[in-house]
Design goal:
Low-confidence stretches: 4-17
CATH architecture of the largest domain: 3-Layer(aba) Sandwich
Strand order of the largest sheet: 2-1-3-4-5-6-9-10
CATH class of the largest domain: Alpha Beta
Helix content: 25-40%
Number of helices: 10
Radius of gyration: 22 Å
Structural class: alpha/beta
CATH topology of the largest domain: Rossmann fold
């Protein structure tokens, strides 16, 4: 009897030690395809945000081997409906959790349509060195060969690893680890849609085995001046597409409807037709900040190339694509509309 009792005590001690060694990772669910459902396993049509966070966690029982995982439902929407309200709620909850001693990392499940924007937003406003990882799927949870469960497993592994500290917000999908600033969605349906075309991924994660080979080259999270803890709304910034013979009407209309900033999805190196240049001058005269970005997926939008940004009062987006330039501009406008200062932000963040 004493031997049997001793055996159970040893087992209890081993289980306790193992539990103490595991990281505590919180999954914050926002919806998306990863929580989507379809009537059959082999159809492309589905509805996002049908599955709750507990079902997502229970679908990957192997998580218990790599972390202590708990979950919270922040929203349950398709990411085409992502909003400032959800962004602010998510950022504030992340900061609350990251401040807790017993939370080691966070995973956010998200739809693919706007994940690159949410990731970059969080990369600018969270205030911790702890890992925050966004993940997703291109196939709904009911699909044959759904990619969500393995993405969740790998994301939890990355978020729970000490190696992942002080790397900013990351995106994990299809066995790759991307920085929030660099990652973009590149394909409408393929599971390998997320790429970092300008700088490449930060590393790989293969069934939980992590290999980092790069580090973000810009400041992030606790290194930035942006704080939304007491913010209830974000300034309106519109993205306006440039194309052959584009008029300036939409730029002027955006200004007249109250936009505080304009990001142009420009031609080539951020160029635009003369009518749009004149409309952007109209915007600047109304104290609206104009950022020149490019519709081209890769490359660097430099200052004073074909347009005299110094004279016109424009800001160049550098590597940031229009959707991400909009994120940074909105946060910058919380404290300044000085194009010189905002250009510095584009250099640093």
């Amino acid at each position: 009897m004493k031997k049997l009792l001793s055996f159970f005590i040893v087992i209890a001690v081993v289980l306790t030690v193992n539990a103490q060694e595991l990281s505590h990772v919180v999954i914050l669910a926002t919806g998306g395809t990863i929580a989507g459902a379809a009537p059959t396993e082999v159809q492309s049509g589905y509805q996002s945000g049908q599955v709750g966070v507990e079902i997502l966690i229970n679908a990957v029982p192997q998580l218990s081997e790599i972390a202590i995982v708990t979950g919270e439902q922040i929203s349950n929407i398709g990411s085409q409906d992502m909003s400032d309200e959800v962004w602010l709620k998510l950022a504030k909850r992340c900061n609350e959790l990251l401040a807790l001693d017993d939370v080691d990392g966070i995973v956010i499940t998200h739809g693919t349509d706007t994940m690159e924007e949410t990731a970059y937003f969080l990369n600018l406003v969270l205030k911790s060195k702890k890992p925050v990882v966004l993940t997703c799927s291109m196939r709904p949870s009911t699909a044959l060969s759904a990619d969500g469960p393995l993405n969740i497993f790998n994301a939890v592994a990355v978020a729970g690893s000490q190696e992942s500290w002080d790397r900013g917000v990351m995106v994990v999908a299809n066995d790759l680890i991307h920085s929030a600033r660099a990652v973009v969605k590149s394909n409408t349906t393929a599971v390998e849609t997320f790429i970092s075309p300008f700088v490449g991924p930060l590393g790989t994660v293969n069934y939980g085995e992590i290999n980092y080979f790069d580090y973000p080259d810009k400041k992030f999270t606790y290194q930035t001046p942006f704080n939304v803890d007491n913010v209830t709304s974000l300034p309106r910034v519109d993205v306006i597409a440039m194309y052959e013979d584009a008029p300036g009407d939409l730029i002027k209309a955006s200004v007249d409807f109250g936009s505080k900033g304009i990001v142009t999805s420009g031609l080539g190196n951020g160029n635009m037709p003369k009518a749009c240049v004149e409309a952007c001058e109209y915007a600047v005269d109304k104290d609206v900040v104009v950022v020149r970005a490019a519709r081209v997926l890769t490359g660097f939008v430099g200052r004073d190339i074909e347009l005299d940004d110094d004279a016109l009062g424009f800001v160049a987006s550098y590597e940031l694509i229009p959707s991400k330039a909009r994120v940074l501009l909105r946060l910058a406008l919380l404290t300044t509309n000085d194009p010189v200062k905002i250009q510095e932000y584009f250099e640093e963040y």
